[in-house]
Amino acid sequence: MDELDGRGTLIEDHALIGDTVGVALVDRSGSIDWWCPSRVDAPACFAKLLGTADNGHWRLAPRDPVVEVRRRYEPDTLVLETEMRTASGTVAIVDFMVPEQEHPTIHRWVEGRSGTVRMGMELVVRFDYGAVVPWVRSTGDGLDMVGGNEALRFHSPVPLHGRDLRTYAEFDVSAGEQRSFSLAWHPSTDPAPLPLSTFAALHRTRTWWRTWVSHCTYSGPWRQDVVRSLITLKALTNSRTGAVAAAATTSLPEWIGGVRNWDYRYSWLRDATFTLQAFLIAGYVDEARAWSRWLRRAVAGRPGDFQILYGVGGERRLPELELDWLAGYEGSAPVRVGNAASGQFQLDVFGEVMDAAATARRAGVLPLGRDGLDVARALMTHLEGVWDQPDEGIWEVRGPRRHFTHSKVMAWVAFDRAVRLASDAEVGAFAVDGHRRPPDPGRVERWAALRDRVHDQVCTNGWNDDIGAFTQYYGSTELDASLLMVLPVGFLTPDDPRAASHVDAIGRELSVDGFVRRYRTEPDDAHPVDGLPPGEGAFLLTTFWWADNLAMLGRVDEAIEVFERLRSLRNDVGLLAEEYDPTSGRMLGNFPQAFSHVGLVNTAANIAAAQGHPETAVALTRFTRCPDPSPSGVDRTS
User: Fold this and answer.
1) Which domain holds residue 386?
2) Closest by alpha carbon to 230, among 247, 242, 248, 212?
3) Tens of pLDDT, residues 37-52
4) How far from chain centre, in Å, is Cα 573?
5) pLDDT(367) > 60
6) Looking at the 3D structure of the chain, how many domains does it have?
7) pLDDT class for 618, splitting at 50, 70, 90?
8) Do 122 and 230 sit in the same domain of this protein?
9) Are residues 222 and 198 located together in one domain of the fold?
């Protein structure tokens, strides 16, 4: 038969390729099951990942049974090599995309390694997340495929034939022989791009990535793992806008068969501190600057219009839709695009944005300039009026608003960092148009007073003596792993008697087989905590946070044990999803997840700093808490 039979794939069976604009996922069988060509948050033209082969994919694989598959990324690149061995020989498929190219293009280089292998190809293009069948025209050396405002130009070195709205090919490849295929996206109103030499494109791609990696300054332990995570983060960064997408996919389930299926292909402001820190640890100042410029554009306007997430171009309207023609990964419906959380009120993002600004200044980069200072002042003025309101919290619950303790801690962070930045401006660390710009002393005193008021309130209403920990929200007895941030942000110091008790309580109550859940998803007092049915995996980022806390407490051996456990979860090419199910031993959630790779970079540096590596000392804690960084000495004549 013409069709190529492919087994169902696990989330971790996939590998990422990308061009710093769009992304694609390739599974171990040689099938590209997901591709958003024009942008990571644009419609996919291959959507088999969330449906069936009829929703689009591109498979290149031996016709005979494959007895062994080995995959790797070429060192210091995002060039993927998949080697398949059959009874008749061995073949390698090299998949890649050229970064920063005008027309997003997937290149597939097929190379015979031994013997002779009969290869088969199946190409199914379906625009708009698998819904639109294109109009296809033969070009002699390939195909033009058009659907609505999108088009693809396919170049093939072998004869093609079509059946049932699919394209097929068969060919032999012997040792030393190569075949190259390419698929280039372009707006349907533009002329189709001419096919490019795959060999030249491969050389350009290798050079681009290796040049980028050569700028990495991180020299601590686990360097190769850190570099692989940094490459993954770079692939999720839009080189045209500077935004970092939270993940490459939408709707991969947090629990198989469940409804916790969200679109994470956008840029969350709360990722700011962690992503900036990861890039800055490794010396990638340009990425941090580009993100800062994106942030300034995205949040422009009235502070009351401030959102928690945006499209990678800074778009604000991200309506959440359900795609009912897609069955969902392993039947986990609904499949969603857009994200209704863009309209939520989440207090913590004020702290994360201000912490990002302070972290950057502490690292000696990203001078804010007049626009940045004005944005920061506007956000802080708005926060003064809303910090005491309930919100939806860091986990974007679909349940009632509450006084989430983490949200209040991050409000404290915002006031604390604002005071610090104002003091920095006072001594001339910020220069605007060559002149110092002293802060308004009354405003700074007000921020300092609010900072202390929030701290007192959290310690009174958020701490539970019986549990020995801060609880999820005021009056609750539930724990929340987001509160592992109280040490890294400096709300508590490691020598505070509450610190170890708090960390141990979270490790005791929320860990499952050594991995930390965000919170219990079971009902609390007969009311769902987050308004959704129970069930999700352990969250990888919060487990990295747990390791950070152990390192800060001086329990470095325990921190390393947790970190090594997390490292062992990475798939064969070093990628991590959002969550993990210890019972089934499977990854869950969107993949690859930026937060997980940010966690790996930051935690590696944190442990290295705890071990005394001076080059990573910036990582261990962004700030220790100052009881009274008062605005004394502010120039009151301004």
Assistant:
1) 214-236+282-293+345-616
2) 212
3) 999 999 999 999 999 9
4) 17
5) no
6) 2
7) very low
8) no
9) no
